[in-house]
Amino acid sequence: MTTRVACIGECMMELSERPDGSLLRGYGGDTLNTALYLARLGVAVDYVTALGDDPWSEEMLAAWAAEGVGTGQVRRLPGRMPGLYIIRTDGSGERSFHYWRDSAAARDLFSGPGAAGTRAALAGYDLVYASGISLSLYGEAGRAALAETCRAVRAKGGRVAFDTNYRPRGWPDKAKAQAAFRDAMAAADLIFASSEDLAWLYGREGEEEVLRHHGRCEIVLKGGGSPPSVRVLASDDDVTVQAPPVEAVVDTTAAGDSFAAAYMAARLAGRPPAEAASCGHRLAGAVIGHRGAVIPRAAMPDLPLTPALGRRS
Ligand code: ADP
Q1: What is the pTM of this model?
Q2: Which of 26, 108, 266, 284 could be cross-linked to 271 through a Cys-Cys bond (beta carbons 3.0 to 4.6 Å apart)?
Q3: What is the 80 CA–ligand 1 centroid distance (Å)?
Q4: Which residues neighbour 234 within 8 Å (Cβ) at sequence distance 6 or greater?
Q5: pLDDT over threshold 80, residue 175
Q6: What residues act catalytically?
């Protein structure tokens, strides 16, 4: 039986400003990156979000489908639009991000007509993946609905994965983020946590916040350093896996998103945690060697994933 994965979150329109002021259009989002790399690795994955009924929403759907990402659980909200951000690059090459996303359709995934259908559908997946950025979209009521949905997933024998991805600007205050991340980690079976995110959120107690779940769930703790290492704590394992050096780091966009995709694909294929971490490093290493979040297909590393379990035939 095919293992089905759902990635929950928001994809926004991306406009990159060029030196002459013209804008180059693309799209991007952390959990979408993970979904796209999961699909490339042969995993049956759906992206679960809400879009509008505008031409750009149509384009996104077509692009995701072309990458093999399932779009059957994308809700379309009439009259609404996707969020949007502009990337501005200053004279010294420093990039800044500017957002228009408060009324983005994706924020209403867990509210309004159709939300009950989304929740019921999510409960049927084998693995549901969300990030700290996903959490920041929904507000208290939406987060409560997501938490209840995750309980339903687990009650049916499915698993829940949470990737910390903390972006302070997505939250009204730090206390709300701290509480939401605590709840999400307590509800997860697999946690991807970056030491940096944890330190920003919880200060010196950061790692403790995640390590208290050791034994109850699988933890992938991404540390700093160059090349960085990850510590993987699973039932009987506590191993540290160093990333191989990358000759030229071009752009670290989607490093963590692609790492999570390869890690999950390897675990779904029955690989042990340390091997899954190596797969994560290999894919993330390829991703940071290229500009942008999505690398050319030809640049995808050939990861040692077993073809049978949990992969699209
Ligand atoms: P994010 O901040 O997006 O979560 P991280 O900095 O945690 O990303 O990096 C995710 C992964 O990307 C690392 O675990 C590693 O596999 C790879 N990576 C990032 N930076 C480097 C680097 N300098 N050299 C080699 N691999 C790297």
Answers
A1: 0.96
A2: 266
A3: 35
A4: 218, 219, 272, 273
A5: yes
A6: 257
Q: State the Cα–Cα distance between residues 67 and 74, nearest whole angstrom.
A: 15
Measured distance CA(82)–CA(274) in Å, rounded: 38
CA distance 12 to 99: 9
Quote the distance between the C-alpha of residue 118 and its chain's center.
18
Which tokens go with 270? 């029955």
Residue 162 clears pLDDT 80, i.e. is over it: yes
What are the tens digits of pLDDT across the range 89-127? 888 888 899 999 999 999 999 998 899 999 999 999 999
- CA 197 to CA 167: how far, in whole Å? 8
**Rounded to the nearest whole angstrom, what is the distance from the C-alpha of residue 258 to the centroid of ligand 1?**
9
The predicted pLDDT at position 307 comes to 55
* Structural domains of the chain ordered from first start: 4-9+30-76+103-306 (3.40.1190.20)
